[in-house]
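DM from R.C. (forwarded with permission)

"hey, sorry to bug you on a friday — could you get me a structure for this? deadline for the figure draft is monday and I only need the backbone to look sensible"
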Amino acid sequence: MATDRKNPPRKPADHKDPQPRFSDVEGHELLKPFSKVKGSDQARLIARLQAMGVLEDSDEVDIDLDQAADLIDWVAERFAPDIEAFDRFTMGAGGMERALNLVVAYAGELGKDAR
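My reply, with the result:
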């Protein structure tokens, strides 16, 4: 079949790129190994992300920045063995986005058994 250069093949609208492995996410080494995370903390993390709408199947999420700030601080206190290193990771331009990407990937990995 010849390729039409004017109309290249496209992905279906509902296609999402696969989520990267947690070990490939920037900052993954800053959080506790999964084997050290209590089930209750796993549930709380996933519940907080659900309440923010972050885990919904949507490309557009309207994040409450106060909730995001509280979540980042809570994750640092609960899941980061070295809070100062985690805080440094979240500082500067793009810090909030880096932190949220890391937290969502972490929760996604923790929640794999729950699905």
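R.C.: lifesaver. Residues 10-15 have pLDDT under 50 and may be disordered.
me: no worries. Residues 46 and 108 are 8 Å apart (CA to CA).
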